[in-house]
User: Which sequence fits this backbone?
């Protein structure tokens, strides 16, 4: 790719990001606050339903609860994941790399519904078991990308850092982490997006989220509820994804 | 001053560096050279303790390096490597400022030093300060790498095949710059290469290594004239020994005063061995009458392509004579004025004034 085309593509991406992200964010806020205003539309779309608008809780409350679940679980995934990734890439922890990688992989292959089923007897209903399931589920991309990101730092760069008299901590903070940050953020992005979708199943064990109208709609055969919940979850995922895309670009050094 | 005393490195029972002892005085340009696997890079990396010693010791200005905290030691020793190892997320100025920042110099002093070094390496600060490494050419990146190594005014500069990955043309330019920088800064340099021409061009001392052992440690000319054994002779390469010798001789050692002539005067007396320079009012050479074997009467216009400078090697001077088919070259100063001439007699090692030794 010549610099000219990459510049043009970069420009197009930035331009679309400038338009799409604010538009999607506005749409998300508008729908969260004003879903009730769309009642005539849902009534027209689903004429057979007596009650085509989910009204047991406000969508704002559901949205905030959903974001809360994702934030807390992602914070745990990211903290544990990065620390684990850092540990196994240091000389002292290198032996543990295969073990940590497979543990994280098991965390993801285990269906969140199954984790919920196990976690409920241990942690009770509601918020806590959902957080456990989501944190485990979101761990793998963070661990994997932390290891991969640190692995992309060129050997010559590390040798130069050592040869110029940087301490291990200085090398990590000034060289390795900044250079790996783009890949690490890409991992966090995947982890968070997965969890935005997966958080909906928390509603099956009583955690309030955007999954609540979804589950209610599925149980009560109310497609309108399902649409409303799914619409908001989808928009939230898109907005989050676009935000991360911007963040990642900030750590691109072109080299 | 660097002293290696019985330096040894063992990997899995095999000695890759075997009892190397040598002393490099301050201000010398020492080159470690030898075939692949001879231990030259390992030796270099033991000096800044990137590789731990198995035996022996290294003294830096009389201090045993093993007694110094390793990061402090490395900040006293500049380090430049083949792939530059520039930090891709830092701009040129910050890359150069690496060690001064670690040493917590005040910002104004760092800025001044960065500008000074960029100017030393002919990188216009205004243009290059804020570039990222991926925006630089190979030669520019390598200059930044060496500038970074020199930034904190280290006692010693270590260079591990720094010009191995750049194109031949750029390498020549960088080698010439390295000679100049060495002359201007007077730094003690330890330089690793496998290229004998590069070693002969740069070194004031050459250490030839083979399978971990020091075979010969000498001045470049002595290495050529008095090789210790057949390995040295073969490694230097006997085929173009004469040319290699010329690459260690400098125009200023063999130049003589120019034969000036008035325009058009005495043309009939010209031959292959007599000639006249014609200069303009400022003393810049315009044309050379004579000094051609093909046509003794011919007047050759002087172009910058075949003028010599005082710090040019005799090898390059000879090359220009051959290419432009003249038996004498004008030696010009920085302003392009004719200060001397260099001819075939100089190539043969006959200096007009007595030779001043071979280390320029």
Assistant:
């Amino acid at each position: 790719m010549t610099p000219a085309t990459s510049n043009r593509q970069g420009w197009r991406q930035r331009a679309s990001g400038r338009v799409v992200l604010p538009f999607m964010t506005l749409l998300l806020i508008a729908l969260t606050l004003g879903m009730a205003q769309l009642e005539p539309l849902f009534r027209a779309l689903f004429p057979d339903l007596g009650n085509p608008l989910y009204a047991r809780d406000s969508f704002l409350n559901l949205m905030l609860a959903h974001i809360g679940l994702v934030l807390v679980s992602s914070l745990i995934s990211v903290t544990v994941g990065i620390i684990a990734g850092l540990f196994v890439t240091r000389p002292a922890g290198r032996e543990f790399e295969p073990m940590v990688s497979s543990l994280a992989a098991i965390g993801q292959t285990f269906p969140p519904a199954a984790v919920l089923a196990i976690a409920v007897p241990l942690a009770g209903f509601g918020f806590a078991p959902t957080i456990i399931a989501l944190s485990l589920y979101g761990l793998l991309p963070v661990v994997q990308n932390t290891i991969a990101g640190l692995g992309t730092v060129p050997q010559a760069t590390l040798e130069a850092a050592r040869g110029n008299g940087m301490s291990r901590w200085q090398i990590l903070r000034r060289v390795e982490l900044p250079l790996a940050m783009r890949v690490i953020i890409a991992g966090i992005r995947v982890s968070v997006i997965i969890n935005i979708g997966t958080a909906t199943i928390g509603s099956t064990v009583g955690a309030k989220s955007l999954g609540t109208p979804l589950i209610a709609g599925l149980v009560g055969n109310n497609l309108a509820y399902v649409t409303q919940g799914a619409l908001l979850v989808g928009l939230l995922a898109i907005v989050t994804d676009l935000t991360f895309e911007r963040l990642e670009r900030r750590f691109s050094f072109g080299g | 001053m660097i002293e290696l005393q019985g330096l040894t490195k063992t990997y899995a029972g095999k000695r890759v560096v075997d009892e190397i002892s040598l002393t490099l005085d301050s201000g010398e340009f020492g080159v470690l050279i030898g075939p692949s696997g001879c231990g030259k890079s390992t030796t270099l990396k033991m000096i800044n303790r990137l590789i731990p010693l198995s035996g022996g010791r290294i003294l830096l200005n009389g201090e045993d390096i093993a007694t110094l905290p390793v990061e402090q030691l490395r900040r006293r020793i500049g380090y430049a490597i083949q792939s530059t190892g520039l930090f891709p997320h830092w701009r040129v100025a910050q890359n150069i400022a690496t060690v001064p920042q670690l040493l917590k110099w005040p910002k104004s002093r760092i800025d001044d030093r960065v500008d000074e070094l960029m100017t030393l390496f002919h990188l216009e600060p205004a243009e290059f300060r804020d570039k990222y490494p991926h925006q630089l050419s190979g030669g520019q990146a390598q200059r930044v790498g060496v500038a970074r190594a020199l930034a904190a005014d280290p006692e010693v500069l270590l260079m591990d095949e720094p010009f191995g990955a750049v194109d031949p043309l750029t390498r020549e330019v960088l080698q010439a710059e390295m000679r100049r920088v060495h002359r201007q800064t007077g730094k003690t340099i330890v330089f690793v290469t496998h290229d004998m021409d590069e070693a002969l061009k740069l070194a004031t001392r050459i250490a030839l290594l083979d399978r971990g052992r020091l075979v010969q440690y000498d001045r470049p000319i002595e290495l050529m004239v008095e090789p210790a054994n057949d390995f040295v002779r073969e490694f230097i390469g006997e085929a173009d020994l004469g040319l290699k010798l010329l690459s260690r001789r400098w125009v200023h050692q063999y130049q003589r005063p120019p034969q000036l002539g008035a325009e058009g005067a005495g043309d009939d007396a010209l031959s292959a061995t007599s000639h006249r320079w014609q200069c303009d009012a400022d003393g810049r050479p315009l044309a050379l009458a004579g000094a051609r074997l093909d046509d003794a009467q011919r007047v050759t216009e002087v172009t910058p392509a075949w003028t010599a400078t005082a710090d040019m090697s005799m090898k390059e001077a000879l090359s220009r004579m051959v290419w432009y088919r003249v038996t004498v070259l004008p030696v010009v100063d920085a302003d392009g004025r004719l200060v001397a001439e260099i001819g075939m007699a100089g190539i043969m090692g006959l200096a007009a004034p007595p030779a001043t030794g071979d280390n320029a």
Observations:
- Chain B touches chain A at residues 48, 50, 71-75, 79, 81-89, 98-99, 102, 132-135, 145, 148-149, 158 (CB under 8 Å).
- The two ends of chain B are 20 Å apart (CA to CA).
- Residues 263-267, 353-360 of chain B have pLDDT under 50 and may be disordered.
